[in-house]
Design a protein that fits this description.
single chain, about 90 residues, mainly alpha, elongated
Length: about 90
């Protein structure tokens, strides 16, 4: 299961500190949300396909499972990015 918690837990295996891992994740969330429309247009996705992918394949709600109160900022960033995708 791919979750942000698992990514954070694995960060030390790659010599990445948790704060740095959180910054990387936050940047990726912003990139996905910011580039979503352009990527969908470049891929010539129909509105139906966009809706099927947004929030399901990309930024699925399950991604934040396991994040504790100490990761509220990351959860909020996730929810904001997800909201941009699903409208």
């Amino acid at each position: 299961m791919s979750t942000l918690r698992i990514c954070l837990d694995a960060a030390p295996d790659f010599s990445i500190k948790e704060d740095d891992a959180m910054a990387i994740i936050a940047d990726q969330l912003a990139t996905i949300a910011g580039e979503w429309t352009g990527v969908c247009e470049a891929a010539i996705l129909t509105e139906t396909d966009r809706k099927l992918f947004a929030g399901r394949q990309f930024l699925n709600r399950d991604c934040v499972d396991g994040l504790g109160a100490d990761h509220d900022d990351l959860r909020e960033r996730f929810e904001a990015a997800r909201a941009r995708l699903v409208g």
